[in-house]
Design a protein that fits this description.
The complex is a heterodimer of chains A (408) and B (588). By secondary structure, chain A is mainly alpha-helical. Chain A is 63% helix and 1% strand. In chain A, helix 7 crosses helix 9 and helix 9 runs antiparallel to helix 10. Chain A is globular, with a radius of gyration of 22 Å. Chain B has 588 residues and is α+β, with helices and mostly antiparallel strands. Chain B has nine helices and 30 strands. Classes of the chains: A mainly alpha (408), B alpha+beta (588). At the A-B interface, helix 2, strand 1, helix 4 and helix 5 of A face helix 1, strand 4, helix 4 and helix 5 of B.
């Protein structure tokens, strides 16, 4: 019997000996890196909430450990995979690997994961020096944090590419056996999970520009127009699900909101001053962007026009559809989230207020004048957002086309 | 580590909403520092980055540590706080229990801005050895702050406040080892990423098991080339970003003392000193601004000025200029030899933020008859001066053998100095050999009359005594009191703030505040000595330090660096300010 999985996967015959357990004969490495990706997202979100609620942490604070587990698991599994392929000459997966530097063999996903883990490792002494030199940073984006975040995202991207290569190996192949079909389904699901997890970190990275308080300002939509179309269209094109962007957006939303829903029930006391808001429990991060709605529209658009229109036209349509729907959805959701009493609860998290902010600040439940724009300014900004979204979408389609071709 | 986006925005936004609070923040010079090579540069130009911290002057020049020696309830403790040199950062707190049975000591930071209600929970200090407790306290915000210690034991509880200026003063470059390690890792990451990009476009798209098609190598190289160009662009962007960060640290965050311009002019035959506070930088950035209307008197004086003649530190004056307007202070000068003088001017703001403003001034050499000299009148009855021998050691003789490694008294060996009224001041209990840098000492001085009997001392500006210590090159300066190295006014301000339950401090009307302070200072100046001291000591309340032996005065201090130091000890006897001068050497 010819397996749909040429060699990087254990062929059915080989995996029979291993018995078909929950892994369906897929390499443990793949599950490990997807798990790493989850650790990274949740560790990061926990860390942010820790800083909003407790403030002070150490090298081995619980959220840091969760992130380290992510980095270590991904780094070790990928590193081991590369060494195994390099030193075991007869390893069957060598045929599905990339040779580099004349000596090493590894899958592309493993290479990304190793790069990510190394980058995270590099950021540690750099960040330490940074703290000693400029003070403990109170921003997400500093040069050492950027290296850390790039590393984290690269580990997650490696996980995604690892799954993608396996998924692509049976793209356009007949799935003859029941096991192959189950594996194919499992890989499709693993891919959208890993894509959703990466999207959560991507959003967190740019969250300083995309808070609900800024949802009536064009800067929000410019950032969104740059960040999202490129990613959503790429993964949407690469996935084999029927509604990939909707599914990935839903996974992103769940990945973002679940730690907040859970952690807000746990006690937390600020350990750094000034304490302007004497909280007793973890303050949640904000409610995710409702990307499922524009995501569903993009899926529908791709169903209808993909293959019929060229990618330039498709990108233009995607940019308009995405941005318009996002504008309508987030503008209104922003109003609700910032001003409505009904948002200030454990579900929508509108009550969240970090310990070092004055809880009686007059703009806590209002839009700050800093973010208000005249109609002309807004329209001009939205125009810029549209242009950004168009190029972002076009590159996303190109990137997605590449993703479909990754096989090793 | 990673701080929430929301928080960042809100911090910025809320700071605009509390204008008064930003005034406090303004009073606080904070940081950003410079370095010479960036990580990104280190990709191309690896290695060699030297580690250097330049000593920056600030509240108490070159002497950043705070020492507090105090009796509180049944406990007598010496508290040493080493504030962070970058903010946010950690202050190292050490407590030596000198008296009392202590079960636990807890510490927490209390900021002037947010007070007691806005302070985080306490952290317990560790008992490290014998009677010493240690711990770290996080200081997140720049400005006037304090470390509150809660002592507990079988004999009850006690609270002690140590005022701390939380400002960034460090300018660091990257240590060579870190630079090399980061450059190596950076290079590895660069090469690996270029490889990955090449493989992404070429090898990774070949179906497993199939041979690599011809022409793939070229495709790979093109990918690698594009990847390398993109990465270099990315790194160049990163380098610009890092540089802008460093610039911001240097211009906005790094502490810079308020500049002053000092000048001397002749007024009715007597030289007069004018100090102008330079406000020209106020418009340039927030960190340069100071709330000048909100100065507080310390020991009843708005400004304490010390003049020290260079290079021998032989002439010394302790003056209290009057405030003419918000930026101008004036004082008549006593009869001092002409020459170049270092000027150290201590002021305290309403927030408890204390700083020493520095300058140099040239005093004219006056040729006066004894009769003319007799007409010299101090502008303030509490002004004092002293002229003695130049320092007995060469200023750069650190570690170099010279005649006397021990304490020298104005060039002559000895542990005592004759005072103007014929009495003698002794430096008691001086540790054996030279003093060690960084080690807290209690410097004890006693006065005996001409018959060698203990001479009772009177309070001087409400304190048992004052001391000033200056390093031979002027880079270290401190104004000490028996309770420690900090400003009494700062402590008073913070103790009041802690008693206040408001979460944020609202400043009163600046003009009203300034006028009321001027009225208070003038009234104090006219009060008889006994009444003045009573008032000052009452105001300092629990902070005043009871002298155990009334002919003795002691000062806690840790010399920050090796070198030669001159110590001026000022006490009052029979209504006269007496200044004892000692030299000493400090080794690492």
């Amino acid at each position: 019997m010819q397996s749909a999985f040429p060699s990087s996967l254990p062929v059915t015959d080989r995996s029979e000996g291993r018995a078909i357990d929950w892994r369906l004969g897929l390499p443990t490495y793949i599950y490990a890196v997807v798990f790493s990706s989850l650790c990274i997202v949740w560790g990061l979100l926990w860390d942010i909430m820790w800083h909003m609620s407790i403030g002070r942490d150490g090298l081995f604070s619980a959220p840091h450990v969760v992130m380290y587990v992510g980095a270590v698991v991904a780094g070790l599994f990928s590193g081991f995979k590369i060494l195994q392929l390099t030193f075991v000459k007869s390893h069957p997966d060598r045929a599905a690997s990339v040779r580099f530097w004349g000596v090493f063999y590894g899958s592309l996903g493993a290479m990304f994961c190793v790069w990510g883990a190394l980058s995270m490792l590099t950021s540690a002494p750099f960040d330490d020096w940074w703290h000693n030199t400029y003070g403990l940073d109170v921003q997400i984006l500093t040069p050492p944090h950027t290296i850390l975040l790039l590393g984290m995202m690269m580990v997650q991207f490696g996980a995604m590419i690892g799954v993608l290569a396996l998924q692509n190996q049976f793209r356009d192949q007949p799935l003859t056996s029941d096991l192959d079909q189950r594996r194919a389904r499992r890989l499709k699901i693993l891919f959208v999970i890993s894509a959703g997890l990466l999207l959560a970190v991507l959003h967190t990275l740019f969250s300083e520009n995309m808070g609900d308080w800024a949802s009536h300002n064009s800067s929000y939509y410019i950032t969104a127009g740059i960040v999202f179309p490129i990613y959503l269209l790429a993964v949407g094109r690469a996935s084999l699900l029927r509604y990939p962007i909707t599914t990935i957006a839903a996974i992103y939303m769940l990945a973002m909101v679940m730690p907040s829903w859970i952690l807000q029930n746990f006690p937390a006391t600020p350990r750094l001053g000034p304490v302007l808001n004497p909280i007793t429990h973890y303050q949640p991060f904000f409610f995710p962007i409702l990307l499922v709605i524009p995501g569903f529209a993009l899926d529908k658009l791709l169903h209808r026009f993909s293959g019929k229109w060229n990618d330039w036209a498709l990108a233009a349509a995607a940019a308009v559809v995405f941005l318009l729907i996002l504008l309508v959805v987030q503008w209104n959701y922003g109003t609700f989230s910032v001003t409505s009493l009904y948002a200030r609860n454990g579900f929508f998290l509108g009550y969240s207020w970090s310990y070092d902010n004055d809880p009686n600040w007059e703009y806590r439940y209002k839009f700050h004048p800093y973010w208000t724009q005249t109609g002309v300014e807004l329209l001009k900004g939205l125009g810029i957002a549209l242009v950004c979204a168009f190029f972002s979408a076009r590159i996303g389609l190109l990137w997605g086309a590449w993703m479909r071709r990754v096989l090793r | 580590m990673l701080m929430n986006a929301l928080k960042r925005w809100l911090t910025i936004a809320s700071s605009t909403s509390v204008a008064a609070t930003s005034v406090v923040a303004t009073s606080v010079a904070a940081t950003f520092h410079s370095f010479t090579l960036s990580f990104f540069r280190s990709f191309t130009l690896p290695l060699f980055l030297s580690f250097a911290i330049s000593l920056i002057t600030y509240a108490h020049v070159g002497s950043p540590g705070v020492l507090v020696q105090k009796q509180s309830g049944p406990y007598r403790v010496l508290v040493s706080v080493q504030p962070p040199d970058v903010v946010p950062g950690t202050a190292k707190v050490m407590v030596y229990v000198e008296e009392g049975r202590v079960r636990s000591i807890q510490a927490r930071p209390v900021y002037f801005r947010s007070g007691d209600e806005g302070a985080p929970t306490h952290d317990e200090l560790r008992l490290t050895e014998g009677n010493r407790y240690e711990g770290d306290v996080w200081l997140m915000a720049s400005g006037s702050s304090s470390i509150e210690l809660q002592i507990d034991g079988p004999d009850g509880k006690a609270t002690i406040i140590a005022p701390v200026m939380s400002v960034a003063t460090a300018q660091r470059t990257m240590p060579a080892g870190t630079g090399a390690a980061l450059a190596a890792l950076g290079l590895l990451l660069f090469v690996l990423m270029v490889t990955i990009i090449g493989a992404s476009l070429a090898d990774s798209t070949v179906r497993p098991g199939q041979p690599l098609p011809t022409g793939l190598g070229r495709k790979r190289l093109v990918g690698m080339g594009i990847g390398a160009v993109l990465l270099v662009l990315l790194l160049a962007g990163g380098r610009t970003w890092w540089n802008s960060w460093a610039d911001e640290y240097r211009t906005e965050q790094l502490y810079k003392p308020l500049p002053i311009e000092t000048s001397v002019s002749m007024q009715t035959g007597q030289p007069s000193l004018t100090i102008r506070l330079d406000t020209t930088g106020f418009g340039q950035n927030w960190s340069a601004r100071r709330p000048l209307s909100f100065l507080l008197p310390d020991h009843g004086k708005l400004m304490h000025v010390f003049l020290v003649r260079m290079p021998g530190l032989d002439a010394f004056a302790h003056l209290h200029p009057d405030r003419r307007d918000t930026t101008r202070f004036e004082s008549k000068l006593p009869l001092l030899p002409g020459g170049k003088y270092l000027v150290y001017a201590d002021i305290v703001y309403r927030s408890g933020y204390a700083e020493t403003l520095t300058d140099t001034v040239e005093l004219p050499a006056l040729k006066l008859s004894a009769q003319q000299a007799a007409t010299f009148r101090p502008a303030d009855p509490d002004d004092s001066h002293n002229v003695t021998e130049p320092m007995g050691v060469k200023s750069n003789a650190v570690g170099v053998p010279h005649l006397d490694d021990e304490m020298v008294l104005c060039g002559k060996p000895g542990a005592s100095t004759k005072l103007e009224d014929g009495s003698t001041m002794f430096w008691n209990d001086r540790p054996e050999g030279t003093l060690e840098a960084g080690k807290p000492y209690t410097l004890k001085f006693a006065v005996a009359d001409s018959q060698g009997k203990p001479a009772p001392l009177e309070p001087y500006l409400g304190m048992g005594g004052h001391a000033v210590i200056v390093r031979s090159d002027g880079t270290v300066y401190i104004h000490l009191h028996p309770v420690g190295t900090y400003s009494m006014a700062a402590e008073e301000s913070l103790v009041d703030r802690i008693a206040d339950t408001a979460r944020s401090f609202r400043y009163p009307d600046p003009k009203l505040f300034r006028d009321s302070i001027d009225a208070y200072v003038s009234r104090l100046k006219t009060l008889p000595e006994a009444e003045k001291n009573k008032l000052l000591m009452k105001e300092m309340g629990s902070m005043s330090h009871t002298m155990k032996v009334n002919n003795m005065v002691e000062f806690p201090y840790a010399f920050p660096r090796a070198g030669h130091y001159r110590v001026w000890v000022q006490v009052k006897r029979n209504g006269r300010v007496l200044t004892g001068v000692f030299d000493t050497q400090v080794k690492e």
